[in-house]
Amino acid sequence: LEPTLPAERIAYILKDANPRFLLTTSQYSRTFPIPNKKLLFIDGIDSFKETFPAWTKGISNPDVAVKPHHLAYINYTSGSTGMPKGVMVPHRGVLRLVTDQNYVPLSERTVTLQSASLLFDAATFEMYAPLLNGGTLVLYPHQQLDLDELNRVIQTYQVNTLWLTAALFEKWAHHLASKEKVVALGSLRYLLAGGDVVSPTVVKHVYEKLDNVQLINGYGPTENTTFSVCYPIPREHSDRFSVPIGRAITNTSVYIVDQHSNLVPKGVVGELCVGGLGLARGYLNRDDLTQEKFVENQFDTTTSDENRLYRTGDLVRLIDNDLLEYVGRLDD
Q1: What confidence score (pLDDT) does residue 64 get?
Q2: What is the pTM of this model?
Q3: Is the C-alpha dihedral spanning 44, 50, 55, 56 positive or negative?
Q4: Extents of the domains making up the chain
Q5: How far apart are CA 36 and CA 51, in angstroms?
Q6: What is the DSSP string of 182-214?
């Protein structure tokens, strides 16, 4: 939860999720409409001692057997088409996103910057890409993102893997105005952008300024844990009319279907359906919507809990080199 959200939205999410406890700081003691006994202030250890007296006698790891299909977190969508929906993401979704994958190298040398709001599923990549690979996580030190400060943090902490929304990526690209600023970003090796259409003009501009960076177009709905398909953008392809969204990442399946749920031929526009280990369990308290959007994978004969597809509502087509190209929204 973001304390800066409208009060109506905070109240809706708390009622919908019905959390056992809410961790916050004392400055937000009156922000969240939740019983005081459920509030735990991380800046006041006494509140923990009062709620959990046994903690004063020592702490040991809980004996909990976590399975891949168990719930990891609930990510509420922006609610641009109504009240936000709680997307239930399992542990296997996070593991599939940042371990044994093929879209960006991750290792103990990875240094990522966590700057996205925790309400945004990109934060899952920012946090767990380094932490589950022995790398380093850098926390952006301010609530508001400033482009000069962003570049300073990248330089100071030698960030080499960065995620930006397409809109912020464009602003940041235009901000690369001087040679001094560009030299300061020499540590940056992989920059993922997405969440909207990535401009080929902006891609070309960044490649002209930064010699060592690999740009990656990352696409995916929250319902399939951040990324579903990715495209490492070649420098020689930066003059294309549009930037493809790429191919499916590891342990992900993608299909393009028509209005009757039949596969469409190459070059024909259809709705993108995604599946695999990143698929969410569905929407919290919304069985009707879960059944509508998460459908049986009729193209795969295997029987497993993951044999479902999420209907993204996005229109795409398959182009040369088996790349997916984003066309628009089904409801436009």
Answers
A1: 84
A2: 0.92
A3: positive
A4: 7-57, 71-329
A5: 11
A6: HHTTTT--EEEEESSPPPHHHHHHHHHH-SS-E
